[in-house]
Specification:
The chain is mainly beta. It has one helix at residues 110-115, and strands at residues 4-9, 18-23, 26-33, 36-41, 55-57, 60-62, 69-71, 87-93, 96-100. The strands form 2 sheets. Strands 1-9-8-4-3-2 form a 6-stranded antiparallel β-sheet. A 3-stranded antiparallel β-sheet has the order 5-6-7, with no helix packed on it.
Amino acid sequence: MADWIAIARIEECPPGASIERVAGNRMVALANVEGTLHALDGLCPHQGGPLGTGRLCGTILTCPWHGWQFDVTTGRHQISPTIRQPIHEVRVRDGLVEVRILPDGGPATDAAAATAGGRENP
C-alpha cells in the first residue's frame, strides 16, 4: 500500500486553480474544481509539458505547451479516448493536501476516479 505524501497547503490551490508539485519521484498536477481537489500525473504524455501550470476551466486542464486537454476527474484526454493520465487519490488533513501514488503509478480508471477528490477530513 502506498503512503500518503503531503504536497501543498490547501490555500495554495484555491478553487479554479491548478498547481504543480512533486510527490516522491513523480510530478503531480493538483487541480481544485469548486472546492474538490483532483490529482493526476503532472507530465503531459505528448512532450512532457507541465500540466499543473496549465489552465483549468471547469474540470478540463489544458497543457500550456501544446494545448492537450485532460479531464482532471478521470484523466481522460478530450479528443482521444485511448489517452489517459493516471489519477491519484487526494485527501486533506489539518490543512495539508496529501496524495497517494501507487507504486506502478496507479491505473487511470473510472473506479480510481470515484475515489479521487479531496475535501477536508474531520
